[in-house]
Design brief:
This protein is α/β, with parallel strands linked by helices. The strands form 2 sheets. Strands 3-2-1-4-9-5-10-8 form an 8-stranded mixed beta sheet, with helices on both faces. Strands 6-7 form a two-stranded antiparallel sheet. The protein is globular.
Length: 207
C-alpha cells in the first residue's frame, strides 16, 4: 500500500490533464498512487493518460456520466492509501508538495486534514490573477485549526475551500461523505474532522 493517494476526478480533460499529471509524477515523493476516476469522457483523456506509461496511475472509467459529486466520491473511495490528496484535472502542483504533506501528517497524528492557499493564472504561473489569503506565519509553517480556534481563523480556512486541488485528508478521520451539491462537495468531508481533530493550514502556495 502506498502512503498517499492522489485522487483525480476527470471529465473531458485531455487539454490539461497531462500537464497536471506531470506535476504529480515529477514530485520528489514517489511512494504514491494516482487514482483517475473518469466520468465517461468523450475525448481522448484516457488514451493520453495511458501514454504516460506510469504504473502508479490507476484508471477507472465509468460507463455513464454521473456528475462531479458522484465522480469525486468514487475517486476518493477508490484510493487505498491512508492519506488522500485531491487534484483537479486543470491544476498543477509546486515542487515537493506531496512530500511536505506526508511529513505534516507524520508530525501531527491528531490532524485529519490539511489545507493551503492557492492562486489562479491564465497563461503562465508567473503571472497570477487571483490570490487566496493566508495566515501571517513564516512561509512553509503550519497553522493548526480546530473547534477551539477563533472564528476569524476558521474563515480564512473556509475561504480556501472553493478549490479541491491541494486539499489532503486522513481517510480514517473523515466522518462525512462528499455532498451532492457541486461547489461544496469536497468541503463536507474535509470539515467533518474539525469536530474532534485538527486541521492544518500550510503557508505555501502549493497549487
Amino acid at each position: 500500500m502506498s502512503k498517499i493517494s492522489v485522487a483525480v476526478p476527470t471529465y473531458n480533460g485531455a487539454g490539461t490533464i497531462i500537464e497536471m499529471l506531470e506535476s504529480v509524477i515529477s514530485q520528489s515523493f514517489k511512494d504514491l498512487e494516482i487514482v483517475i476516476s473518469d466520468d465517461n469522457s468523450r475525448d481522448d483523456t484516457i488514451k493520453k493518460i495511458e501514454a504516460l506509461g506510469d504504473s502508479r496511475i490507476k484508471i477507472f472509467k465509468s460507463d455513464e456520466n454521473s456528475g462531479y459529486p458522484c465522480n469525486m466520491r468514487k475517486a476518493f473511495n477508490l484510493c487505498s492509501s491512508p492519506l488522500v490528496f485531491l487534484m483537479a484535472q486543470d491544476d498543477i502542483l509546486a515542487d515537493d508538495v506531496i512530500s511536505d504533506s506526508v511529513k505534516f501528517f507524520d508530525s501531527h497524528p491528531n490532524a485529519g486534514a490539511l489545507s493551503r492557499p492557492y492562486y489562479a493564472f491564465d497563461d503562465t504561473p508567473s503571472k497570477p490573477i487571483r490570490y487566496k489569503k493566508t495566515f501571517d506565519i513564516p512561509q512553509g509553517e503550519h497553522k493548526i485549526i480546530n473547534s477551539k480556534s477563533e472564528f476569524k481563523d476558521i474563515l480564512v480556512l473556509l475561504n480556501t475551500m472553493d478549490q479541491l486541488s491541494g486539499l489532503c485528508y486522513r481517510k480514517s478521520l473523515v466522518t462525512t461523505d462528499f455532498h451532492d451539491d457541486v461547489f461544496p462537495c469536497h468541503v463536507y468531508p474535509f470539515l467533518s474532522v474539525i469536530k474532534k481533530n485538527d486541521i492544518g493550514f500550510v503557508n505555501n502556495y502549493t497549487v
